[in-house]
# Entry
Amino acid sequence: MPARPSESQASFAAKLPLSRHQIDRDYLAREREELFPELLADEGTRILPVSKGRALFQNETSLALLPPAAIPPQAELVYLGRSLATDAPEPVGTPILAALLTDEQAEKVASEEQWGNLRMFATGLSDRDAGLATEALGIANWHASHRFSPRSGRPLRSVKGGWVRIDPDDGHEIFPRTDPAIIVGVTDADDRLLLGSNALWEKNRFSLLAGFVEPGESLEQAVEREIFEESGVRVTDATYLGSQPWPFPASLMLGFRARVDDANPGSLEPDGAEIVDLRWFTRDELIAAGDEVILPGRSSIARAIIEDWYGSEIDD
# Structure
């Protein structure tokens, strides 16, 4: 029997906006060859349009789920699953598709102002809509980057409810992939938190240090390597907190806490390429910094880890 998450892990996971879901992915239905014709013929089916990394919103707190007749017939489709939400306008069990629209198709479906960025609106969405948008955008990004076979260069065809792309000539199948990345709340002996500023950001924007897991590397090894590479600090005791999908375009952010290795602390120094500034903060210093320090947005796991260390929500 799989181990149950600890109470602290469960509590932390509840703070992650993009980890929420109320969808049965209904994976067995993906095998049905007539899945899409059946669902499109059902007037109760609902479709979430996505385009250019954005989803269609009804308002700031809910997605726009459209009937099949409102979607261009040539749109590429993905079966997202069936709604489990008891408080949604649609009944429990409603099948939901994503429509991956071209620019021209998107213009016909809705006006520009109706398309929304998940980073901005995630915290206001219901559990079901947050999960739907995260799933739809993640799979849409995969389709957009896997149009052709890496072995032959031939165009791939979408099959199995949009969850597999296949080479029609030799039958080679390609499945969606997610890139694991660690993100770490590093503290020292005085329980100060380490924050860094990326070269691509404005100078007063700070966040936690993070990086992708390399082949043949454990998560704990990735924590130690990435923190040292970006900051010159040696850490130990990497402790897993929770994870959140980050479909911008295809990451799974794995949250950790770690502390400076007292026996071999290293020397604080930004790498100068990706990280250009590093600062230690006490809780009082972080609050006193005010507008001088811009923290990550509330849709990010970085914000959740920072507030977990702080002990409560931090006002913007």
Summary: The helical segments are 7-13, 35-40, 103-109, 118-121, 127-145, 219-231, 283-289, 301-310. The chain has a mean pLDDT of 95.
